[in-house]
């Protein structure tokens, strides 16, 4: 993946996969705009990165600080990484808990892309970090986690529809499952499921490894693959 000082924007960059994508792309020579609600010490330590705080996919005007920072700059890579996962199970579901998942995982990223439309053009790659838990046809990830699964399925639908609407302008849209990754979010969900602390990182990819695998998938995306759904951990195309 050659950068030639191309611009990468990562929404949800202060920790986990977003932070590692920021580091990886910075090391490749990209001009980076790292967007987040609030920076972290790890993100602030990454050299030559423009950090934009106050960017919140869950709020109606959450893109405003990013739009102000970008002005009319062309985005080459746009990553929508920010997400939410809370353990829920049948019998204990509530409407508010389900709605929060949709606001952050599906509606927010779609509206963020819409808000940044003026910065997207020929050659842009828009990448929604999804999950194979949002695949209805895959069937390998068990049950429960209704809010997360349903919202990621909705995000997948949004990405596939975006690909059709942006095709004429030669904007590529990709949906990527990063694998089961050792992040604070994943560990918190495992804690809610009663997994002992010593086992909460078991069989999980490290975030830096996941980021490299995601970038490998993104590098392979072109217009012929726009709107497709991929697993970065295995390199396979995923069922809807």
From TrEMBL:
SUPFAM superfamilies: NAD(P)-binding Rossmann-fold domains. Gene3D superfamilies: NAD(P)-binding Rossmann-like Domain. InterPro entries: DHB_DH, NAD(P)-bd_dom_sf, SDR_enzymes, SDR_fam. This is G6473 protein. The lineage of its organism: Eukaryota, Viridiplantae, Chlorophyta, core chlorophytes, Trebouxiophyceae.
